[in-house]
C-alpha cells in the first residue's frame, strides 16, 4: 500500500468519548483506524518522549510516535478508497499541534 497520512483526526479532551468514537469508526467498513489509538505524532514530532516528566496516567506518552515514516506506516493497510483517521486527545492541549497538522496538509 501507498504511504499516506490520515484524512481526519479525532481531537477531544480525555474522558470525553474519544475512545468510544474510535471504536465506532473502527467498525465501519469504509473507515480505517490504526490499531494504535493515540500515536500523538502531531504533538510530539521530533521529540524524545523520554524527556517528559511522567505523572499519573501519562505513561503512554513514552510510546508516542515521533517520526513521520513511522507515523505514515500506521496507515499503510488502509485501502485507497477508504477514509483513514486516528485519535489523539493530546492534540487539544498542545499549542504546536495545529501548526504541525496544517504543515502536513496536502
Q: What global shape is seen? A: globular
The portion of residues assigned to helices is 25-40%
- SSE sequence, one letter per element: EHEHHEHH
> Cα distance, first to last residue?
18 Å
pLDDT averaged over residues: 88
Sheet bearing the most strands, described?
Answer: 3 strands, parallel
Strand content: 5-15%
Query: How many β-strand runs?
Result: 3
How many DSSP H or I helices?
A: 5
User: How do the strands line up in the largest sheet?
Assistant: 1-3-2
Low-confidence stretches: none
Evaluate the radius of gyration. Answer: 13 Å
Category by helix and strand content: alpha/beta
Structural write-up:
The protein has five helices and three strands. It starts with 7 loop residues before the first strand and ends with a helix. It has 106 residues and is α/β, with parallel strands linked by helices. 24% of the residues are buried. A three-stranded parallel sheet has the order 1-3-2, with helices on one face. The model has no long low-confidence stretch (mean pLDDT 88).
Quick summary:
This protein has helices at 18-26, 41-44, 68-73, 90-93, 97-103; strands at residues 8-10, 31-32, 83-87. The chain is of the alpha/beta class and 106 residues long.
Amino acid at each position: 500500500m501507498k504511504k499516506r497520512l490520515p484524512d481526519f483526526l479525532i481531537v477531544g479532551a480525555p474522558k470525553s468519548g474519544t475512545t468510544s468514537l474510535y471504536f465506532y469508526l473502527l467498525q465501519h467498513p469504509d473507515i480505517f483506524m490504526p490499531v494504535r489509538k493515540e500515536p500523538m505524532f502531531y504533538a510530539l514530532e521530533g521529540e524524545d518522549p523520554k524527556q517528559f516528566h511522567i505523572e499519573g496516567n501519562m505513561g503512554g506518552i513514552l510510546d508516542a510516535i515521533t517520526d513521520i515514516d513511522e507515523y505514515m506506516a500506521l496507515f499503510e493497510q488502509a485501502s485507497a478508497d477508504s477514509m483513514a483517521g486516528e485519535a489523539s486527545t493530546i492534540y487539544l492541549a498542545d499549542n504546536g499541534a495545529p501548526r504541525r497538522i496544517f504543515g502536513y496538509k496536502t
